[in-house]
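Protocol step 4 of 6: record predicted structures for both targets in the notebook before any analysis. Target 1:
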Amino acid sequence: MTAPPAKTQPLDIDAMRATADRLLAEDAEVPSPEDLETLILRLRGHLMVAIPEVETTALAWSEDGVPRTCAIFCVGEARLRLSVEPGRALPARIAHAQRLARSIRVLCDHYERRDHQCPRGPERAAYLRMLEHYPECPACRTVDDNGEGTGLCATGGRLYDEYRQARRGPAVQEAGPKSGPANPPEHRSPPPPP
């Protein structure tokens, strides 16, 4: 007889945020070396629990959505931060702990709100979609005799335009009538494939 699969407990977001705030709050005091080591261990533990939960949650979201791409990117960044060995000096250890704390905060944001996007989330998501498309697309990999991308792929062109728009940010509506013709968006062929 096999046991039923164990249900996971929801993340203790309040405890995670409280730990991160000990290092990131505006009025945060510099911890003693002993307290810092305890904080680092606690942050690492929080990340080890949060990473698989946030990743599993995000993978259920729409594949082409910015929140999913941003959450998956933040999970990867948190994993990288966990793998880093901090320096021995107190300032280096504090900086390391603050990076772990920022990862905790952003993972909590993604876990709590399905629509959360990091400030550079749309740009990052558009860039990652380009990077996923170009290597797999024969048309995007086609180059002319000079090694320049031919830009014959409509999907690659659309992804590049989305990336450029995300870098510019959302369009701002001006009040009142415009004087003169509207400037058409600039079109370029996508960057050469990696």
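Target 2:
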Amino acid sequence: MSKETPCIAVCMMDPKTKLCFGCGRTLPEIAQWHRMDSAERLAVMAELPARMAEAGLAQIAERPTSS
């Protein structure tokens, strides 16, 4: 996976917070992701840890990358 995506292939939405359990993005963010430029993606990614902590969602460890 690219470094410019927070996706860890745990794609399930929390019905209460409307955030993805795996990455913390909203459905609109996920849908627009491929249209965002690098700066927009990095800005969203910078918000995700705090967003997930505030929502009470445990951050799942990153998926190992294969070499």
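Step 5 preliminary note on target 2. The chain has two helices and no strands. The two ends are 11 Å apart (CA to CA).
Proceed to step 6 after PI sign-off.
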